[in-house]
Amino acid sequence: MEAPLIQIVCNEPEGNVVRNVYPMLWTPENIEKLTSKVLEFPTLYGREIKSPADITEMFLNPSPSGITAKGLFFVVDDFVGLFYITDFAYNFTDAIAHYTFFDRRHRGRIPLVRAMMKYVFETYQFNRLSVEVPLFTSPHTRHFIGECGFTLEGKKRKSIRFKDDIFDILLFGILKSEVLKSSGKS
Asked: Does residue 27 form part of some domain?
């Protein structure tokens, strides 16, 4: 693999672990790895996952010239996790940020998420990032988002379906100035 974009020490349950973040390469092997990891989850990024076709529709744009991604993708280590940036607003003022840790751990990974946000803000010049968290997720997920620096900004009522019910989505946001100020840059 090429050199990581981000390399940071995370204090995880088993001790200090160096985590590396790489740009996602859309090789057949990586698509297969991603599919096998995602199929272990009933939902991902607020959508129910029932088949490989759901994953393809979520992430990829097939075209005659090849496959393109529907956003910016970054993989943590060898698919320990994934960062995914979508829904870019005009002039990169905003985008939706997503993350997944396939080992289902959050503990010790706040520095990793913050480093990734700093990288995304510096590289792509977004003014803000938004996160949408369905209320069928665990309270721990919502707490983790807050610990990463996102501010609860509101709620979209009854806007996502899961298991034959409709749930609210909490809306979180973070500004570039907040991330760069906390990392010592302005």
From this structure: yes
